[in-house]
Amino acid sequence: MSFQVRGIEFAKTNNGHRVLVLNRNWQAVNIIGVRRAFSLLWQDHARVINTAGGDFAPVDAARWIELSQSAEAGAGPFVRTVRLCILVPKVLLLRAFDRLPVAEIKFNRENVFIRDRYTCQYTGKRCPAAELTLDHVIPRERGGRTTWENIVTCRRDINAMKANRLPHEAGLRLVRKPARPKRRPFAVQAAGASLEKEWLHFLPVGRTGS
User: How confident is the model at residue 131, as a pLDDT?
Assistant: First the structure.
């Protein structure tokens, strides 16, 4: 399986590679696939940060092709044209975009557990995930909604005991009032992902040395 962008053939084996994108202020704003990366480069919307060179000099598409031809075998993943092999860049620098996107934290079971630190919000006890479930503070049968503000982490036995009652009706009291987590800058979120070593210079985890 393969696909093309302006004469470049992308093999299926390239699909797993990712490219870090910086805004023009050198702040991380996205992680994209190989096809999207070359599309931005070919349209002159971005330049490649030459991480292999050590000076992190931004280079355009033409210069990147030249550098690819002089690269040693095994220097990294590449894509193939009819005549050339071109290295897949690790980092792109956008030419115009200067904003810093903020990532919305998705509402799901795992993120509620993380918000509540895997701690039952009625007993204050930290538990393994297998012993926890989600509880509607105001039960659905009584108009409660499935939102950050009405869902808490709860031990399964406590959840069964509470049933369709309000906390005070079941003799329970919340450790803390549930709330929507603050949104996180993309770079902070990306720092928790699986990282390429070339990205560490541009993410908080790289600057702290952690």
Answer: 96
- CATH classification code of 109-170: 1.10.30.50
CA separation for the pair 193, 103 (Å, rounded): 14
Q: Structure tokens of 58?
A: 């931004």
Structure-block tokens of residue 93: 């620098």
The helix or strand, by DSSP H or E, that contains position 40, with its residue range, turns out to be: helix 34-42
Residue with tokens 């990366």, as numbered in its chain: 37
3-state helix, strand, coil in the chain (%, to 5): 30, 25, 45
Q: Using CA atoms, how far apart are residues 194 and 62, in angstroms rounded to an integer? A: 30
pLDDT of residue 85: 84
pLDDT computed for residue 106 by the predictor: 85
Residue with tokens 């897949």: 88
| 0.85 surpassed by pTM | no
Q: Break the chain into its structural domains and give their ranges.
A: 2-102+185-208, 109-170
